[in-house]
Design a protein that fits this description.
This protein has 299 residues and is of the alpha/beta class. The chain has 8 helices and 12 strands. The protein folds into 2 domains: 76 residues, no CATH class; 207 residues, Rossmann fold, CATH 3.40.50. Keywords: Membrane, Transmembrane, Transmembrane helix.
Length: 299
């Protein structure tokens, strides 16, 4: 069935349900005033002239159920409308599940036998200590931006006792002209996992897209589907009671398409939020929630 036919059928459904709700409401009003409903029906099929108490009660019940059904379905359809409400805050709360799109970290972290280092130059390197506030401050003191700082600030509000599970998604290698390869961030995810466990040893980490070695961050629809899959996996985690309130998507890493895909993923999950960390240690971590529906909330 093509898109145009689907739209026509959906329009007819909504029109029919709206008409049913209006007519049913009118019949309920007539019944409340004591009028006898469906007299021709009773006479034609049951040979009853007029209607007694039984026929009156049956009629009232039928029209009431008709109204409730049509109103309920119309309400449910209204929740699928494109835009309802945008909530945002610069004070993120801790979540149990974090879904992260990871961009290439520069300078790239290097896992060595005695720890994980960030080489700022040939003669200068910073070792991650496992104390997240200390490490963030160390990067803030550098003369140039190190985007590992943003990565650490993204996990900092959640890394305490609240955070239990992290989903990582990295970008796929991109082949340029003349077979020149722009390496994606997927190959960095093992090191990112080590960084995460440096701050919380028992963290459960799942890497998405291992069979394809990442997801092309330029493809919004593939990203959206990847987010939907990870959200569903989180909600269905065996032995856990995760809800949408427990999950947050971080879109700090990657291109603008990552943010668009995350926003689209929240349309069908009204209690699910996504966050973005601005560059610079003093800038806030912004948390957003886009709800789908029909009536804006008053907040």
């Amino acid at each position: 069935m093509n898109y145009k036919n689907t739209k026509k059928i959906e329009f007819l459904k909504i029109s029919s349900l709206t008409l049913m709700a209006v007519i049913s409401a009118g019949w309920i009003g007539d019944a409340i005033k004591g009028e006898c409903l469906f007299t021709h029906f009773w006479e034609l099929f049951w040979g009853i002239s007029g209607c007694g108490l039984l026929e009156y009660c049956i009629s009232l019940i039928l029209v009431t159920l008709s109204f409730i059904y049509s109103a309920k379905v119309l309400y449910e359809k209204s929740q699928n409308l494109f835009y309802k409400n945008l909530q945002h805050t610069d004070k993120p709360t801790a979540h149990r599940v974090l879904i992260m799109a990871v961009s290439k970290l520069f300078p790239p972290p290097v896992a060595e036998s005695d720890g994980i280092y960030i080489y700022l130059s040939k003669n200068q390197r910073v070792k991650l200590t496992g104390e997240i506030k200390t490490d963030i401050e160390e990067f803030n003191n550098q003369e140039f931006n190190v985007n590992t700082q943003q990565f650490l600030r993204a996990i900092e509000p959640h890394i305490d006792d609240s955070l239990e599970k992290v989903f990582l998604i990295g970008s796929k290698d991109f082949i340029k002209e003349k077979s020149d390869i722009d390496e994606g961030s997927f190959n960095l995810l093992d090191t990112v996992s080590k960084i995460l466990r440096l701050y919380k040893e028992d963290l459960e980490i799942s890497i998405h897209g291992e069979e394809t070695k990442g997801v092309p961050f330029e493809d919004v629809d593939l990203l959206r589907r990847a987010y939907e899959k990870m959200i569903q996996q989180a909600l269905e985690t065996e032995g856990k009671d995760y809800t949408e309130h427990d999950i947050i998507i971080d879109v700090t890493g990657g291109k603008k398409t990552v943010s668009i895909a995350a926003a689209m993923a929240t349309f069908g999950h009204k209690n699910l939020k996504f966050q973005y960390v601005e560059t610079g240690g003093d800038n806030p971590i912004l948390t957003f929630n886009i709800e789908a529906g029909s009536i804006p909330k008053i907040v």
